[in-house]
Here is the input.
Amino acid sequence: MTRLLIVDDSPLMRRLLGGIFTAEGDFEIAFARNGIEALEQLTAFKPDVITLDVNMPEMDGLTCLDRIMLERPCPVVMVSSLTEAGASTTLEAFELGAVDFITKPDRAISLEIDTLAPKIVGTVRAASRARLPSSLRLAERVRLRSGLEYRPHSALPRLPATEALPRRQIKFAPAHGVVLIGASTGGPPALDTVLSQLPARFPWPVVVAQHMPSSFTGPLARRLDKLCALTVIEVAHPMPLAPGYIYIGRGDADVIIGNRPNGPLVLAAPSLPEHRWHPSVDRLVDSAMQHFAAERLLGVLMTGMGSDGAEAMTRLKGEGGRTIAEAEESAVVWGMPGELVRRGGAQVIAPLERIADQIMGMVDRS
Here is the structure.
């Protein structure tokens, strides 16, 4: 049995989520009405996975998440709204250690719960198997357990933006190669780690397919833009594919590469039903292979459940392209990169902290 703690101040939400997981038959469920009760349940119930609402009285979700990750780290799925504010809060939760999120519908949840149930269950099941790094906020945990001063998440120093790094005035020169990155569950903090290490003069554009709703990918791009030496933008309309840029695919659509007489471009395309997740990594890689020679493409598949990207990147490697799979030791969920490895499509298997070095080395040798 998987021990699930549902934390939400709404009695309706607790009842609906409880009903979904009770029907599964293999969940032992406990409830908490706010962050204070949730912290009490950490030792009393010892959950394997937690769903955590953001907006609660007495102790909000982010403060509660902060304490969970310091006192008894376990996988946490945030329950977020689809608003931009909800997206920004969820991205902050990823910084603190959350594994994934589920979104509340715009309409009354009781009208849509049956439709949402399979995705909610799938997300929580994947999260329950997630691997939290043993080093996650280790210094803060040691301070807390030693009785030293504890600083809540609101007082913690923010990740430094790279505004001091000079950004060159980029001309839209044709791209001679492209880095294609796919990620899903656990992706945002993984993207932080990899993309923030790429230098301002990195010679190839980078296109990212991160499985997310459309209201989340804009805030994700803006947040990454503050962390990276390269310019990060969301692909909301057709734009030239140029060095010096990282392009984040718009959620609820697919991001693809096309061509015009004056050079390649990247654009958002309506999602296709044959692809389960969006933006689709498989479709991104397939589109790139139509316009670039395989040896001018580098595919990187990072943490995420499922197999999106594995088929296309295996084909890319077979045609002479290069591929990197995140190693199991660092992936929150070793689904997508693990499938690439199982298919023989990974040229290099690297832990998260070494992926940027691998990317730069491969591009430098091109």
Observations:
- Residues 7 and 37 are 8 Å apart (CA to CA).
- The chain is about 40% helix and 20% strand.
- The longest helix spans residues 109-128.
- The radius of gyration is 21 Å.
